[in-house]
Amino acid sequence: MTDPLPPPPKKNPQVRTVSPTRPPEARSRTALGLSAAAAEGRFELQHCDDCGKVQYPPRDACSGCLSTELRWKDTDAKGTLLAETTIHTSTKLYFRERTPWRTGSVQLDAGPVIICHLHGDCVRNGRVDIINRLDRSGQAVLLALPSQRSPHMEDDPQLRAMTSDPKHRRILITDARNPNTSEIARALSDAGASMIFVGLSETWRPSPTLDALSAMDKVDVLPLDVTDTHSVQKLAGAIGGKTDILINNARFLRPGGVLARSDTSFAKEEMEVNYFGLMRLAQSFGPVMASRTADGVNASVAWVNILSVHALSSQPEFGCFSASNAAARSLSQSLRAEFRASGLRVMNLYCGPTEDEWYQPLPPPKVTPQAVARTLVTGLQNGLEETYCGDVAKDVFERFRDNPLILERETTLAGDGA
Amino acid sequence: MSETILSDLAKALGDQSIKVIDLTHTLDPDFPVIILPPEFNQCARFRMEEISAYDHRGPAWKWHNITLSEHTGTHFDAPAHWISGRDLPNNSVDTINPANFVGPVMVIDCSEGSATNEDFELTPELILAWEEEHGEIPKDSWVLMRTDWSKKTGADYLNMRDDGPHSPGPTPDAIRFLIHERNIRGFGTETVGTDAGQGSHYTPPYPAHFYLHGAGKFGLQCLANLDLLPPRGAILLAAPLKIKDGTGSPLRVMALVQGNDI
Amino acid sequence: MRQSYDGVVLCAPFTTAYQRYSIETAHWWIARALKGSLDLAGLRPSEIDGFTVSSFTLFPDTAVGLTQHLGLSPRWLDHIPMGGASGVVALRRATRAVQSGDADIVACVAGDTNHIDSFRLMLSSFSRFASDASYPYGYGGPNANFALLTDRYMQEFGATREDFGKICVAQRQNALSNPGAVMKKPLTLEQYLAAKPISDPIALFDCVMPCAGSEAFLVMSEEEAAKRALPYARISGAIERHNAHAEDPIQLRGGWSVDIDELWDMAGCAPVDMDLVQTYDDYPVISAMQIEDLGFCPKGEAPSFLRDKDMTIKGDFPHNTSGGQLSAGQAGAAGGFIGLVEAIRQVTGQAGPTQVAGASSALVSGFGMINYDRGVCSAAAVITGGAR
Prior knowledge:
The structure holds three protein chains of three kinds. By secondary structure, chain B is α/β, with parallel strands linked by helices. Chain B has helices at residues 2-14, 111-116, 124-134, 155-158, 172-181, 207-214; strands spanning 18-22, 47-55, 58-67, 75-77, 102-109, 121-122, 142-146, 160-161, 164-165, 169-170, 186-189, 218-221, 234-238, 248-250, 253-258.
């Protein structure tokens, strides 16, 4: 039985904040295939193209027929727990600080035997489901869950260490003016967030969402303009130490590719909000968030960027906007690397066209604020790094993964004239 | 009494017996800015972006967005700009008493020496010699160092070489004299800084910035047309933009000059 | 039938005194054991023409670096990275070299140092599979892996912690007669059961103590040993097997079970004929596994087999007569030699305070290299007293 996680007490100001420590990071290149899958929450193992044998641990040649044609594929995650142990002492500081820590040996229905972390509710010799998640070193680890859902499962400390669960955490959503903000706030509140700060820019403008947001339980609207360094610094000074999850949904969007526009003016705004806004937020909030990743139940845990899936491959009708998102995506990769030592997780949520004014002329399917909110919360609960919201985003990503050059060509045709 | 002076002024401006002299360089993208070592953040250059021109981007109007530094082009330095002035009260452009933006100006002509010596120095001796001829510098006045450097163009303006820039400026003694013995309001030059190009090699480095701003005094840089001003008698108008916590700003510097002085 | 090991013998068994921590290097410890063995044989380093070494802390050197470091010029050189199986494997390699004439006198050495950080650093890059698939899970090291194995063994065969405790207690008793052992205090079953948990069901006294130390012996022809009047042991049989039973979900049997009949056939005797047994004892469960796989009893029955046995040197089933790794200490790769070197002493009557009376036949078993979730290497040899 997992004990429900109680809300944390107020932080004792006399006690030193625990420095972040990490599980082992070293992996062979081949094993990074597992981490790449965990980033998206997928359980993939290598399957031999020639004889079909499923391999684990990750390797470079089939242990059945020596073929080197091994391919990562989604794999049946069911298995049986063969043996278990509870570690009471470890030479690695991360685990030493978290004992007792349960691990086990699971025989997968797909064949291999895996050593994995064990959820506290796994029953001796019982059936389990394996999930592939990133640990605090940002590397894949396998964790066995009991195949029957148990109450408060997500509160198991070993599982919670692999996630960015919003439960009991304080969250900043950067842009009240984005149409998705109230849905995101609602979904986070339902998922157990203890406090939701929402940033509102340019309070001298009309703020149509302000009343509804302010009326929401646990929501506090504060001034924040991601284009104004001073504003970002000021808010970070006030709440940076209490920001456990930062969700950057600030977005400036206008139609047009390079030639469709006559100047750089909208492009500058797009870069100012979508790229430099991210940079400002990271420079002000990043260091303090990185320092607090071992700070108890509501330790800082994640940084979320909501991006257009066309950050991967340009949508010429919104070419300049795509470019600003590509810049933001690249920056988020740098940020992810810079946060690596702290264990702070950067999650990029990619959407296709959203259901709002600037995408109005585009055909469906378009992404609703509710869909964004759901994907965001699920992504946090699974500790993902990359997640795709809506059919268009999933489609674009699949094509991108298959062959980015083909994707570029199929989205940049001019159309046959006379 | 005041009514008569101002109405006299209005009349004189109308009949050109008092002329308005523009002491400002045009802000354009090619105007040089100070160059710092590459590891430091650099002074932004002036850039302008047309955002509509009576067209689809804005049918009845034309306008630009501009980007620049507080210290781009002809500009004003407030005491907050330098470390020595960081703790003084009212040390930023938005808090300086606007009475300081209008006042008498003295012009010390160093153009002859600067023509042949790129590192020409304004010294206490030169100041005293000027005072011999034109009378003591009144307290709370602006003092400008005329070098005709503003007539230089291209790379000659910064005159940057492997050992740094070479342009005229005051010695530490000269600045100390102007501040402690004459209690001036501020100091101005035609070059990119109130200090000599090689000013980093004085003790203290950049003495004009150090002493002026440490004493709550102001600076003006990239001035032009100082050769159109009389040595004394003109009134300087130099009002920086009211930037919150600003350390300076580009501005229109003008002088009111009595007709028969030109 | 495989070729016998006749005509080649083992002599000059040497063990350094083990030390919990040492500031010296593996090179230093290896040199100490090599010299000790050569001194026993009255040989100079230039007189050996074969050399093999096993070590975990020699990096970046291998046997190659040691030839120059120690001033050796062998015509046969090997480096055996097989952990606990290294001793028997070194025996197999070296005897074939002497039999074929590729070398006349081979020194087989194992040694490791132990700095404060050695164990943790060794774990961090032990093997690719360990980095990828074992250490991220609690970094329990081999302790956690063998805890899983012990858990399964106990479930499957009904073994209890008392069964394992009996093995540990007897070995500690033996260690008290070994002046070079790291553990010096007696151990009772109660203390064993009450010990600090390490990784359930493994507790403190189930675990070896990593330390610094080294072991060595020489391999030469019987004529050569007789010429020098050296006590020697003969080899009746030896087997090795790696990555056996790969499809077993959990390791409850080791590679010995594949070739064990061949070992006894070669040796021309049976388990019951052994005067002492040295198993590789990184954990008591592995000793139990070896006792089964080496033919003393069926799978899963080692606890009941041992229940009425006395495993001390004065008992009816002398086991790990110098205390084994559990009580003498695990000096890295020297753990793969400790049983063999002690067995050579035993069957040649040179064991001194740990001597089993009248010992003339010994079974030595090696096991090791937890590459991922199980020990990959296994080996075993039967040796008999040749000359005392």
